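Appendix B. One record, verbatim.
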Amino acid sequence: MSGFADFYGAPLDTSVAEHSDYSVIPPGDYICQVDKAEVKPTKANNGWLLEVQLTVVDGSYTNRKLWDRINIINPSVEAAAIGKRTLIALGNACGYSTLGQPEDLLQKYCMCHVKVKEDQNKITDYKPIPQAATPVPVAAPVPMPAPQQYTGPQPPQAAQYVVPQVPAVPFQGAPTPVPAVPTGTSSPVAAAPVAQGGNTPPWKH
């Protein structure tokens, strides 16, 4: 008889419970990506619906799965009208003004409003992702060019002033002293000759 180790490679560890993608998540708004969008017949085979599978891509419940079935053709006029409004909301939330093919929705992102009904999640509305929740890539700073070294003509340099050197005069010794005149004596002064003819000054002649 085979044991679980033969199937799992080791005895099955039951101490840690794994959460499946089918478990219910709390009500709220979740950013999701569309994984599948396929047109299928209704269960009664009397109409058509769009079956959509989405994956939560943000928050604590990342990678959890959500499903929606949107009526396209249905015997119930009200069901068909609700399905059309839901499909328009989904296309608009994914960024389309017109929607051509179900495949256009694949890999697109939208905001899903989720509620819990009968222990199951139900998407009740689709909205575009708020701009604040959309990551915006930050541009790398542009490096500033290094300053270029000036290579033009250089200004003339000022001429250096040279102080002229004055030759030193050799010492010639002390000056010759002047003989002093003896006190109380006077040098003989020759008397001016007196003109003949009286004491008349010269300018009177």
